[in-house]
User: Fold this.
Amino acid sequence: MPKTRLSAADRKQMRSNANRITEIRARFTELADLIAVEKRALTADEIAEQQALTAELQTLNLRNSSIEAGDWSPTPEQLDRGQAFEQIMRSVGQGTGIPDRYSHLRSADRAGMMIIPNSEDAVLRSVQDTTTIEPIVPLTIADIIQPLEKGLILDKVGCKMQYGITGAWNFPVVAGVEASIEDENAETGDTTIDISSLAPSPKRFSLAIPVSNRALTQNNGMLLEIVRTQIVAGLARTLNRCMFSPAQITSKAPVGCFVRTAPTKVVKDAFSFKDVVKLKAAVMSTGVQFDQTAAYVCSATTYGDLECTPRDAGSGRMVLENGMVNGYPVFVTEFIGDGKLGFGVFSYELVGSFSAMALGVDNSSAAVMRKNLTYFVLNADMDMLTLRPEAFGYAEIKATPAIGVNDTQVDLAAGANETVTQTISVSGINLTADIALAIDGAGKDMFTVAPATIAKDANGAVSARVTIAYTPTAVAKPGHIATLTLSSTGATSVVIGLKGACQ
Assistant:
């Protein structure tokens, strides 16, 4: 229940927090004005500062909210955990090593790193149950994985995460495998999924979490929450990006379920109800057994477009209603990209965290001291596997490329060996290739065009002027006739008639 009256200490704390919040916002404004005036992007140092200030701002806002709610004082366990975490991290950062009471957390092969143990570890249980040793373990893998799962769309679509994997990966879900019917003594053939051929290849996920030293000195045991929040946010972004991007994000990254050489279905201009049904049908036709994890995924923009796209001409119903399309849920992730719609049976996708995670601290190197920051560095081995790639597909809107001109007929007159010119305007949209210009026909030798190629911009657009020249060498009746063709891959070619009269 909220407090009816704040104590003097609470009011003082809130004023201090508010002053610091004002300072941070002023710095954000200063950075924005600076890059606007100088017309540049943020430098690496400025990005690091921005991230650190953002983390500090989140903490300050949480503190004020807690004070206003009358719940500012942490529980004894929360306070002990926070203090224990801070003690370990400061000891590592100062070069004194992890205190003896936490010797079970030391990394054997990485100096200055704290091992984040699995909550089921026998050593950890003994530490928690022993009264003669510090009873509070500052950070376990559950502190990271559990909130990570809740913050991931992976969890929403039914994709589960295994952690603490030390040997072979145990596949918890293998849907759609059927028994075969054989003669009495016949050898049974392989099932659809050959588990023995699916081997994980753990990838190193590493992130550095910058925290301002001012935030550290004023954190009142909040350091654990700051770092934990940033760890979860950083891992969530990367895992979501790996999972849902239609292309592998780097050669070192796990391969997500939608990575393929081409979309399952290409749509022009917009998704219709028929298009989204056909996408599901394309996955269904592979023989994949559907379960409760079957779902669509798309960006927020595409989600909004589907909400206002009619299913048909008369019913008044939309393609997407109440978070569902065609009886299946739709989940939002920006990492699939605008203009794309994914569909899959997500029980065929696995995510795993291997061995232990290691967390270190750097507050003494020259690079971080100049920024007045402390960096918390996490290293974790993770991977994801798609048991059946055919259980996933995506459709993509590819707007039709088009070429436009302001005139489709050019008539010119000149004396023998005289040159006359005319300029036309050329436009293009949704182009995937440059526009090529070529002259053909019986009188083609009397005409030239410049330029011979028009380059598209990064958005596939063209806006240019083209000059056509007529230089007759002799009189011809009824005149010199030719054509100018403008072409680009995927676009309908535009043909301009050329007629020259030699006077």
Notes: The first strand starts at residue 113 and ends at 116.
